[in-house]
Specification:
The protein is mainly α. It folds into two domains: 45 residues, no CATH class; 36 residues, no CATH class. Helix content is 57%, strand content 0%. It is built from five helices and no strands. The longest helix has 15 residues. It starts with a helix and ends in a 6-residue tail after the last helix.
Length: 88
């Protein structure tokens, strides 16, 4: 979590990046969210939240695969698809 927060702060190293973040916050939340609140929300994420999200967006969905370089160890699409069929 610390690395995520550090990366978020480092991305705001320019005026343009800061304005872009403010715009995203305004569109998403209707206000600018202070960094402390963003970090508190990140800290509140638990393993169960990640599991629920993964089940909603990854499990039992068709996937797109892409690879660059040697693909000898890349699993077959059907292998991946069979392992993401509703496991709740």
């Amino acid at each position: 979590m610390r690395q995520l927060k550090t990366n978020m702060l480092m991305q705001l190293d320019s005026f343009a990046a800061t304005i872009e973040e403010i715009g995203r916050h305004m569109l998403t939340y209707g206000r600018r969210m202070p960094a402390a609140e963003v970090f508190a929300r990140i800290d509140a994420i638990e393993a169960e939240d990640v599991r629920v999200c993964a089940n909603r967006f990854v499990n039992d969905e068709d996937h797109a695969m892409a690879a660059l370089g040697p693909v000898g160890g890349l699993p077959d699409y059907d292998w991946v698809r069979n392992r993401t069929i509703l496991r709740q």
